[in-house]
Amino acid sequence: MRFVLIIIVGLAVSCSQVKNEKVIQPKYITDPVKHDSDDPAIWINSENPQESMIIGTDKHEIDGGLYAFSLDGKMDSTKKVYPLDRPNNVDIAYGFLYADDTVDVAVCSERGKSAIRVFQLPELKPIDNGGLSVFEDDTLYNKVMGVSLYTRPSDLALFAIVSRKEGENLDGSYLYQYLLSADSTGVKADLVRKFGKFSGTKEIEAICVDDELGYVYYSDEHFGVRKYYADPDMGNEELATFGLTGFADDREGISIYDTGEGTGYILVSDQGANKFHVFPREGSPENPHQHELLIALDMNTRSSDGSESTSAALGEEFPSGVFVAMSDNKTFEIYDWRDLLEKIPH
Description:
With about 350 residues, the protein is mostly beta strands. Helix content is about 10%, strand content about 45%. The N and C termini lie far apart (about 50 Å).
């Protein structure tokens, strides 16, 4: 009888090991935020890539904040913005013209104030006079949710594309796009277009812009991923919908991994399955807007919302870049992109 029990325990251990090998593990996990981690961004330090930072939100209603972490997950107590009123998403842009100089900026949404916030990097110094109001012409559906930045290659103009917490289809104008600029009084935001369809169910939070190829993607959470031109001068035609099936629950965070010459991967969080669905960035040989599923990666994250990717070499530990994703235990998980590339079919 004792011999039989030993065999059963041995089988259980073997099964567990097989299961764990399927799940991609992070290299580091950040220190926890105080309440509710939501969305990360990656600031690349061009002079010292290994000193790059992860910027993440804690989306509490009153006690929220924006925090900085090193690449090994340590919170930097000297770099934070606190308190903020439910900051959801954050994104980063480089070379923004401000005060007769160019600076890098982090922009986050502050839902409780129906505004976006702009901070100079790496200090996380506010340069927006307390916030830039969005959706001002809509008193019913004006709670900002997602934000993503687009730097237009032709003139380096910086735009913020924002989504709202709730609403209706709104005749294809669910997202607003603002031109960000600065004068002697600080940063200002000018509305340049309204665009984007919405299924009318759940919400739209995750937005991701491909600066190089000129596209913006966003998650219509119970429908699929929608694709448009990022440049407001290119019009409001919907170019593609994909990720329409195979998700266990909400389609959440979107990030792009660049493998060069317009190729790479689009990653979309399947929040209910703890997976990330991977699609080709370049589409298919016949159609650049045909994004068929390549693989669904099993990740260690739980109920992941926001995520971010970079293919930039960030020191010896991350020669192929990093993937960062929120997990529901108040942390962000930091992955070596080589571990993801091993699983993705080529």
